[in-house]
Specification:
This protein has a domain of about 220 residues: Rossmann fold. The two termini are about 20 Å apart. With about 325 residues, it is of the alpha/beta class. Helix 1 packs across helix 7, helix 2 packs across helix 4 and helix 4 packs parallel to helix 5. The strands form 4 sheets. Strands 3-2-1-4-5-6-11 form a 7-stranded parallel beta sheet, sandwiched between helices. The chain has a two-stranded parallel sheet with strand order 7-10. Strand 5, helix 5 and strand 6 form a beta-alpha-beta unit. The chain binds uridine-5'-diphosphate (UDP). The site of uridine-5'-diphosphate (UDP) has 14 residues, from helix 6 and strand 8.
Length: about 325
């Protein structure tokens, strides 16, 4: 099969590309390197079943050609990270909404399967965990920039599902829950890489808010396998499916866990949300996926333990510091 991955030089995209190439598929990556990095795909460049284009989705002619060549389109290109979203809301909304629209429009002309990545953010302030895919989305007011990410992704979902209903374009919507692992950068505010980096440097681990908010962290290998299995399942077409791990931990406990597993002497400090993000910032207190639907459709659910995930992320940063080729190591450990 021939896959087009938008955002293919990103953290998740590069792992997905690697997995598909390993199983013998052909992969075309399209990435404008806004948050992705050529480093993420350097180790894949020698594979003759891989092509990459450093360009924008807005290049309609290129997009049409790439869609034409592909059997399946995986749309991962998006604005990522709460920090980025709070700082650049216009870019977030435009990237997420316009990008998805262009992909769906191009795919529809050729009726190519599209898997589009959404986010657990769409559940917003709903407190009724675990979140089932048919749960209400409870977003905060439009005056709070954070919710623009969830709202833009929810609109992407509506659009994708409408293309399926109205135009019979086969689509799958995957709602990803806090995907983590080697190659994820802390640059866009994600908690695990930031905690692990601080712990390894023995500098302060900064917990935002009370630290009582919780998350479930999913290893990128599990996320990748979930996405591939969904694309391989005809029954997933027209569906919205959570992809996440169900092991829940508070951010405060995560700070202590990371400190312990990395044998770090870092102090753990608390920073109010107002200071970490923006005045009046609202967080999601709990975010736990129901993976019943994923399991029913694919026979798979994410299983990598948090301890293993922390160790893998720590090993990645350690090797990076030591100048070891971390991408090859990450690839080997994904086998
Ligand atoms: N967080 C934190 N310290 C950091 C980065 C994030 O305490 O250095 C918190 C953040 O406020 C949130 C949780 O960790 O409650 C997860 O943040 P992340 O940005 O990784 O993902 P989110 O689940 O918010 O999309």
């Amino acid at each position: 099969m021939h896959y087009l991955i938008t955002g293919g030089a990103g953290f998740i995209g590069s792992h997905l590309a690697e997995w598909l190439l390993d199983r013998g598929d052909r992969v075309i990556l399209l990435d404008n390197l806004s948050t992705g990095s050529i480093e993420n795909i350097r180790h894949l460049k020698s594979c003759d079943r891989m092509q990459y284009h450093l360009d924008n989705i807005e290049n309609r002619q290129l997009l049409a050609e790439l869609v034409d060549d592909a059997d399946v389109i995986v749309h991962l290109a998006a604005a990522v990270g709460v920090k980025l979203i709070v700082e650049s809301p216009v870019k977030t909304i435009e990237t997420n909404v316009n990008g998805t629209q262009l992909i769906l429009e191009a795919a529809c002309k050729k009726k190519k399967l599209v898997l589009t990545a959404s986010t657990s953010e769409v559940y917003g302030k709903n407190t009724n965990v675990p979140f089932r895919e048919d749960a209400d989305l409870v977003l905060g007011p439009t005056t709070k920039g954070r919710w623009s990410y969830a709202a833009s992704k929810a609109l992407d979902e509506f659009l994708a599902l409408s293309y399926w209903k109205e135009k019979k374009l086969p689509v799958i919507v995957a709602r990803l829950f806090n995907t983590v692992g080697p190659r994820q950068t802390g640059r866009y505010g994600m908690v695990l890489p930031n905690f692990v980096k601080s712990a390894l440097e023995h500098s302060a681990i900064t917990v935002y808010g009370s630290g009582k908010q919780s998350r479930c962290f999913c290893d990128v290998r599990d996320t990748t396998e979930g996405l591939i299995r969904l694309m391989d399942s005809r029954r997933a077409i027209g569906e919205v499916v959570n992809v996440g791990n169900t092991e829940e931990i508070t951010i405060e406990d995560l700070a202590y866990r990371v400190k312990e597993r990395t044998c770090s002497s870092s102090p753990i400090e608390y920073i109010p949300y107002d200071q970490a993000y923006e005045p009046g910032f609202e967080d999601m207190m709990r975010r736990v996926p129901s993976v019943e639907k994923l399991y029913a459709l694919t026979g798979f659910c994410p299983h990598t333990s948090l301890n293993e995930i922390i160790d893998r992320v720590a090993a990645f940063f350690q090797q990076k510091t030591e100048g070891i080729d971390t991408h090859r190591v990450a690839a080997a450990s994904a086998d």
